[in-house]
Amino acid sequence: MMLPPEFFHRNAMLVAIELLGKFLVRDGLKLRIIETECYFLTDKGSHASLGYTEKRKALFMDGGTIYMYYARGKPSLNFSAEGEGNAVLIKSASADCADEKALQRMLKLNPMPDGRFRKPERLASGQTLVCRSLGMDVPDYDAKQMADTDLRVIDEGYRPEKIIQTVRLGIPDGRDAHLPFRFIDHAFRDRCTAKPPKGAYEVCGYNETVSKNQKFL
């Protein structure tokens, strides 16, 4: 089932948690979302905290609007959530759900710098690798609703049994680097962007994860 717009019209943290296990589908290509990060307007680590610009306008649009930008020259995928400036970053995904034909296409779309194929289990282990594996670039998707593109987020009923919660990656000191706004499907922890340092994360079931984050909701 394709996620309705209402899915994204909620608190960014809830959206980030519930996107785990959903599937990104585009042009026959398919990836399972295994890692997300949430951002809020009041959070110094967010793009939106720097203020409204034409480039960041998607962050201030209705929930479910696609926000794409270049990280070190390569595209990253986000979805706006409820409230201006709030969003979820798709941090990494897994190609375990793809059929062989789709997997081969994604391997060709996202080779290593020397041209070799990546290991399938690490194909989308990073925010820019997700976009490259799906053949997505910023100009084609930024500031658009999914209904106006060929990208879909699909719910096939899968739910993570356990969720890792830890701090986000790459947030500089002084920009709320301490906030525990990164979520990982525990079953796919070996395929995420980077394993959290030992002792620097919590592992809980879905309900417990939501419950212990009530202060942020």
From TrEMBL:
Family: Belongs to the DNA glycosylase MPG family.
EC number: 3.2.2.-
Pfam families: Pur_DNA_glyco (PF02245)
Keyword tags: DNA damage, DNA repair, Hydrolase
Listed SUPFAM superfamilies: FMT C-terminal domain-like
Class of the enzyme per the UniProt entry, highest EC level: hydrolase
The protein, known as: Putative 3-methyladenine DNA glycosylase
InterPro entries (UniProt xref): Formyl_transferase-like_C_sf (IPR011034), MPG (IPR003180), MPG_sf (IPR036995)
Organism field: Seleniivibrio woodruffii
Keyword field contains DNA repair: yes
Domain of life: Bacteria
GO molecular function, one term: DNA binding
Any one biological process term the GO annotation gives: base-excision repair
